[in-house]
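Reply to dn_fold:

You asked what the input looked like. This is it:
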Amino acid sequence: MTRRLPAAPPRQFSTWLLGAGLVALVVASFASLPLQWSAFFSPDAATVTMEFLAGFAPPETAPAFLRKTALAALETLSMSAIGTLLAVGGGLALSLPASGRVKRVQRIVARAVLNVLRSIPELVWASLLLVAAGLGPFAGTLALAAHTSGVLGRLFADALENTDPHPQRSLVANGASPGAAFCYATLPQTLPQMLSYTLYRWENNIRAAAVLGVVGAGGLGQMLKFHLSLFQMQSAATVIIAMLLLVALVDAASFALRRAITR
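and this is what came back:
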């Protein structure tokens, strides 16, 4: 005997209005942009693209250049790792008041700081910090730390808000200090989720660190900008391959760690 599915809930007028607004926004976006699809798929565009890509082959394989590329890759990896580590500390410090565990005013201030930190992209942070820290990886590391602190702080705060508060309240009621109750009851519940967020953001920071070099923040991005500006396409091809390999290795390592943590 088959059961009939329950009737669908009635759609509110605001839902239809929101859907119509999204459709109108998509249509207006296509209408306002001068998208030249015919020129993009023309034979001339294909010929120019193939000639441009042919200039990247074969990649530069001189031992001295490969050593230089490897050092730049290590610099990019270090920028992402240190920036993520600093962001974890900053995100944890801001997530506690942002999760509503203290006074309401502190929650509002912490949420506002997190919104500012994550709303400014890494490239903008790097451009601002280059003035104070100068050219090099230090400014890039601080830019990654600033933006990622806002992202991780918001994620950590949401994880703390969704945690069951009863274990911590039970420990406090039995005489434990609030700090000890938080470390032994609340933090173990959210720690796997926080570690997963951290590893995921480390993956993103590898890509961001490779791009930050374009504005002079060191690493592979700075090498790529230098060789492309001089039209040294073969050297640029080697740098691009190094970026792809670095991102692939970090993605694989992060995926394995996240699976080991969340099991």
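The chain has eleven helices and no strands.
Hope that clears it up.
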